[in-house]
Amino acid sequence: MAEIGHEVIGVDLDQAKIDRLNAGECPIYEHGLPELLNTHTATGRLRFTTSLAEAAELADIHFLAVSTPIDADGRSYDTGQVFRSSTTWEPTW
Hints:
- By secondary structure, the protein is mainly alpha-helical.
- The protein contains 4 helices and 2 strands, in the order βααβαα.
- It has a two-stranded parallel ribbon with strand order 1-2.
């Protein structure tokens, strides 16, 4: 999204991870991702925070990305993280 001109704010509760991302350190391998991360953190279009309130206040669209591991039955997904992530924040408005 930052590549096409949008301001993007990533949120995580781990401050150390946020600090590394804001410094342009890419925690995963995906072809071309380190360059995009460095480019757009430098322009300010991409930044990271631990503040859900900050992201909610500034964003028009929200994407929730969490792990959805396969359940023990091997056929369905554990959506617990989706529900926990989407119900832990209470809006202030």
